[in-house]
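pasting Membrane protein insertase YidC for the record, 559 residues
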Amino acid sequence: MNQTRTFLLFALMAVAYFLWNAWEKDYGPQPAASSVAANAPDVDVAPTAAIPGQDTAAATPSGAGQLVTLSNDVLRLTIDTRGGNIVKSELLDFTATPRTRKNPDPAPTTLLDNSRDDIYVAQSGLVSNGGAAPDHHALFHAAQSQVKLASGQDSVRLDLDWQSPNGVKVVKSYVLKAHSYVVGFGQHIDNGGSTPWQGNAYEQLQRMAPVEDHGWWKSLTDPSSHSFFGGGWYSPQDKFQTLGFDAFKKHPLNQATIGGWISMLQHYFFVAWIPAAGEADTFSTAILGPDSARPSYILRAVSPAISVAPGQSYQHEARIYIGPKLQGTLDAVAPGLDLTTYYGWFTLIAQPLHWLLSKLEALCGNWGLAIILLVLVIKAAIWKLTALQFYSAARMRKLQPRVDALKERYGDDKMKMQQAMMDLYKKEKVNPMAGCLPVLITFPVFIGLYRVLSESVELRQAPFYGWIHDLSVQDPYFILPALYVLVMLATQWLTPPPAGMDPAQARMMKFMPLLFAVVMAFFPAGLVLYWIINGGTSLIQQWMIIRRVEQADTKLRIS
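structre below
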């Protein structure tokens, strides 16, 4: 297969992939609650009391809380004493927009936030049938309004106090360590009353679905439009599962598990509640205001029953991760947490590519250079395969005058023309299908790298050189797509047109570079860079082989 047909095959495969990707996002299968619950361990984790807001929006008690900030060097949390919930989180090492000369100090990326209409909060509390308990609406007290990690400190802690008239005291605590996105969390129960306290602890994430722009322009220009937004959870028996916001009602979750976690996922970042290891919890979903225009979706983990005798105390612990999808580090936080970077069907290709890219970036210090080195590694690995392709193309180039003569001889008799061409190719030992195998190898790499560039937070706002300030989004000036068109035009010039192609098809093939320019214009700049280097190295290899074939033919004629 000549190089022009290779481009056409690649285009068809790319279109098929993106159509499948869009279909899977909108209509892909979701796990049914019954099938998930069937594999759940047999443990008694039913809450002893109803949790506020389980089915309908609960009224918030009167009285505003105090906003308290807790921060380390990478994370700043805002905690409302009304409920003791995290109502805002700012990722200090990840800016909302790239740094530029006009905007040298952009605001940090905000993840959790209830200051706008899009509510997204991390809540927690206790419930009890037999006595008072502070749920996520209770009013706590904080002795400080700001707690910040100081230089030389390993960790900082914020305590929130609550006490009932019958002597039960609860201290809700948050702990931040240096350089960490993991927040330690505890609810300490002191029973100063005269009767046993019985109840459950719970942690939950509440979020409104983001307002999506389904326009074609956004789907082309915004990588986040192809990312998964919704709930996710992990259990040792069922591994990682996801649930889109539109599936919360169709497939409600009610699963007992030991050693799992719950999360809300989005492009590049996520929040996850991680119960204590070995604790038997019930994971469930709920919708607040299911008939409203903007309902809230809840993922919840409920602990086993807790009993605290008079004069005794109990410490319930969990952790919450609020931060980026830093691959290769998250499984150390909790099993399966690395799976929050969702590559879909191409995970087996994308994960090794990310690993190799990260190693190359550590070597050269630039993600763009790492992409170039990746191309060179792949080209070295398949050098002999592509050499066979280009030797075949070079021989077909030399045979083109004889093919033209066959066209004149047989005219419109296509069957005789095809048979004569196959006899000619067989005699000259030319394989017109030699170009297929390299495409079948490089195309999965192309799609895998597309997923890596679109989903890997390490490449978010990663600059290259010159005008490329972010390899994960399109080239703002379309220079890289234009360079790729030049590579394609040069490749077309070196490659003979397919034998037997009618003039109309030949003219259509000449427009292939323009078609690819339009497609590549909206791909991440890093991906276009990959394809330029890949095409450029192939062009050099093809030119070298053509020269070698021509020199060999010249020597043969002289001898």
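The chain has a mean pLDDT of 82.
The CA atoms of residues 39 and 237 lie 7 Å apart.
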